[in-house]
Write a structure and sequence with these properties.
Helices cover 35% and strands 20% of the residues. The chain contains 5 helices and 4 strands, in the order αααβαββαβ.
């Protein structure tokens, strides 16, 4: 029984099957159920594992339009704009960035009218100086996580 890289192996196992039981994880990793339980608790307490959620295919649920919003924001208002974007339920990702734009956000919408309404509502914010929106034509890879390297 070895604990070398156990946390990383445990994370990788959960990436493969987030619904795996403690017993099956213990068997796969050749450790006790108690060890798996303790390590999982530690990973959760450290914020490394932040929850267990299903992967949703939003396109299958009618959210056919993915848009990437690039925003230039008044410097002192960056935090406020980012906080506001985070509150929009259809914004999947919000990033503060370097480069030509201060914020990049990715949203899912039911159609272009839905997207247009959301963007127009955002642009009423006087702290947003400029915006550029790109509509995704084809999703090649999205929301994928990767296995951790074992040391």
């Amino acid at each position: 029984m070895t604990y070398e890289n156990l946390d990383r192996k445990l994370v990788n196992a959960l990436l493969g099957d987030g619904r795996a039981s403690l017993r099956s994880l213990a068997e796969d990793l050749d450790v006790s159920v108690t060890t798996v339980s303790n390590h999982l608790s530690d990973l959760e307490d450290q914020g490394i594992i932040q929850g267990y959620t299903p992967k949703i295919d939003y396109n299958a649920l009618g959210y056919d339009v993915t848009a990437i919003l690039q925003l230039k924001v008044e410097g002192s208002a960056l935090k406020t704009v980012v906080d506001d974007l985070q509150q929009h339920r259809q914004m999947m990702s919000v990033y503060e960035t370097t480069g030509d734009h201060d914020v990049i956000a990715v949203g899912k919408f039911t159609d272009t009218d839905d997207m247009n309404d959301e963007i127009k509502a955002l642009l009423t914010d006087p702290d947003i100086k400029e915006s550029n929106t790109s509509v995704v034509l084809n999703i090649a890879k999205e929301h994928e996580q990767f296995d951790l390297d074992l040391e």
